[in-house]
């Protein structure tokens, strides 16, 4: 057997590796539009646009990081919507916290580029061919330094981009300013109100003289805003790339109802997303988020992790390594058996609710932790969410007159019961790692590279290759993304001999696993 060089693939070959097959999964989550928003009293109470709450019906997802901004959203109470800002090129087609932070944001982006070498490599390989020339991409993701590297890659490949945030807490203000400075129309800032959130999405979509033809979404809010408010524009979209469980569920709902009129690529279920972003990323970022917000010591603490999917597995592994006593709740017998074999006790939440110190939700479901269970938690318990939306913890039920909310740190609230008991709620039930800490840049390079390739494929696919359905990326594309990142570790792939390839019935260049293979 011989050792091969890292696999190469030019942009002309990208389209040939796609033989994506539409997939259909049973979906329980119902599509929710902005009209379905559940209203509740806000904390802290402020008037006008400065409210920090957002409807619990909306999604906030798990893919990108949120480093602390140079200036917190509370530093200036003036809403960016009330400011007139212009970049050095004379453009005002953006709305960010402070355009003067662009220089700081540029430094953040340059730091991120150092650990996203594979995405930069893809940019350099394809830049001369401009595979996205003519593409007008509207995006709704976390706006961080890592996302900025992806956006600037899309621009370098020929695309025009307009961008907004999928989470009201995850935007790095200085990065949003840096993108706006180079001409990307960004409408986002840390600490948006719900009204701001939907206004920003609308400004990205509804602008004179510019009509999007591609969507990159994280959570489905942008897709469904366009579907509901701008159906004629939506019908002209050439492709949607979605990278979250919540957003993918919404796409399958549209497809099942026969209302999905454009092809969509399900990046969330690609191997490079599931096994790296969801598992390895959360294994590191769960501790980062908890430590930054609470300074808690985990040795000997009793922790319940609700859900043992890839995110739950990562969280459990990290907590166990620090000496925590970890329980798992699960509805799926296969995941439950995996948890047992990994050394965790599988319980019902009600069995341990009075004794645990920390509850972490990782299910993507709603009302995983109810008001009744919160009432029975002991003093000083910590509750947080690592799942895909802010519906897992019943935060709305805590906004009642008999309970007092006390903001003790950014994204840290003490909810105080009449008897003096305090429960520590992090990020108001939104995604902990994206709201309160950072996510490893290298992992985000893997996801971003997958997103870029999916956009290139959908945009350049000949008519008829993709119908009005939801598609998975083929194994060949997952393998290509992985191969681009091996150089970081100085890893050398072994190459099959002709005899070995024939024996296994494989092409020497891959794919090496069938579509049904479980990694």
TrEMBL record:
Residues 53-72 have a biased composition (Low complexity). It comes from the Eukaryota. The keyword Ubl conjugation does not apply. NAD(+) binds at residues 309-314, 330, 433. Residues 36-89 are annotated as: Disordered. Substrate binds at residues 144, 218, 243, 273, 277. GO terms for cellular component: cytosol. Coiled coil: none annotated. Residues 278-439 form the S-adenosyl-L-homocysteine hydrolase NAD binding domain. InterPro entries: Adenosylhomocyst_ase-like_sf (IPR042172), Adenosylhomocysteinase-like (IPR000043), Ado_hCys_hydrolase_NAD-bd (IPR015878), NAD(P)-bd_dom_sf (IPR036291), S-Ado-L-homoCys_hydrolase_CS (IPR020082). One of its GO terms (biological process) is S-adenosylmethionine cycle. Keywords: NAD, One-carbon metabolism. PROSITE patterns: ADOHCYASE_1, ADOHCYASE_2. Pfam families: AdoHcyase, AdoHcyase_NAD. Its cofactor is NAD(+). Binds 1 NAD(+) per subunit. NCBIfam families: ahcY, PRK05476.2-3. Belongs to the adenosylhomocysteinase family. This is S-adenosyl-L-homocysteine hydrolase NAD binding domain-containing protein. It comes from Amphiprion ocellaris.
């Amino acid at each position: 057997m011989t050792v091969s060089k890292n696999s190469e693939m030019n942009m002309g070959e990208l389209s040939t590796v796609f033989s994506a097959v539409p997939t259909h999964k049973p979906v329980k989550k119902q599509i929710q539009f902005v009209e379905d928003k559940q209203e509740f009293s806000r904390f802290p109470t402020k008037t006008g646009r400065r409210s920090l709450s957002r409807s619990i019906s909306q999604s906030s997802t798990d893919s990108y990081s949120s480093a602390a901004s140079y200036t917190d959203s509370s530093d200036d109470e003036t809403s960016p919507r009330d400011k007139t800002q212009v970049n050095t090129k004379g453009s005002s087609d953006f709305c960010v916290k402070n355009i003067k932070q662009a220089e700081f944001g540029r430094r953040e982006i340059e730091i991120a580029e150092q650990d996203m070498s594979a995405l930069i490599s893809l940019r350099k390989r394809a830049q001369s061919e401009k595979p996205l020339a003519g593409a007008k991409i509207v995006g709704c993701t976390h706006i961080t330094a890592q996302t900025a590297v992806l956006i600037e890659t899309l621009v370098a490949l020929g695309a025009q981009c307009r961008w907004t945030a999928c989470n009201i807490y995850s935007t790095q203000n200085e990065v949003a300013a840096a993108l706006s400075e180079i001409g990307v129309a960004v409408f986002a800032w840390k600490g948006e109100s719900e009204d701001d959130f939907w206004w920003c999405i609308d400004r990205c979509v509804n602008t004179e003289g510019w009509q999007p033809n591609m969507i990159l979404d994280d959570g489905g809010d942008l897709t469904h805003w366009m579907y509901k408010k701008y159906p004629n524009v939506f019908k002209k979209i050439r492709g949607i790339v979605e990278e979250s469980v919540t957003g993918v569920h919404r796409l399958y709902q549209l497809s099942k109802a026969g209302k999905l009129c454009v092809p969509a690529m399900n990046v969330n279920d690609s191997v490079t997303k599931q096994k790296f972003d969801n598992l390895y990323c959360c294994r590191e970022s769960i501790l980062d988020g908890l430590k930054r917000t609470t300074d808690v010591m985990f040795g000997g603490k009793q922790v319940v992790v609700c859900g043992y999917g890839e995110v739950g597995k990562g969280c459990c592994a990290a907590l166990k390594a620090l000496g925590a006593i970890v329980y798992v709740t699960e509805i799926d017998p296969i995941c439950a058996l995996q948890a047992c074999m990994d050394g965790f006790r599988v319980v019902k939440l009600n069995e341990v609710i009075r004794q645990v110190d920390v509850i972490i939700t990782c299910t993507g479901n709603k009302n995983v932790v109810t008001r009744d269970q919160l009432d029975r938690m002991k003093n000083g318990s910590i509750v947080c969410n690592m799942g895909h939306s802010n519906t897992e913890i019943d935060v709305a039920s805590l906004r009642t007159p008999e309970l007092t909310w006390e903001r003790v740190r950014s994204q840290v609230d003490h909810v105080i019961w009449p008897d003096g008991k305090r429960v520590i709620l992090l990020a108001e039930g939104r995604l902990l790692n994206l709201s309160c800490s950072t996510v490893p840049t290298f992992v985000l390079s893997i996801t971003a590279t997958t997103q870029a390739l999916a956009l290139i494929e959908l945009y350049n696919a000949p008519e008829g290759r993709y119908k009005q359905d939801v598609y998975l990326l083929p194994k060949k594309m997952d393998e290509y993304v992985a191969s681009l990142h091996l150089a970081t570790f100085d890893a050398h792939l072994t190459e099959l001999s002709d005899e070995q390839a024939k024996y296994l019935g494989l092409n020497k260049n891959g794919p090496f696993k069938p579509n049904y293979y479980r990694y």
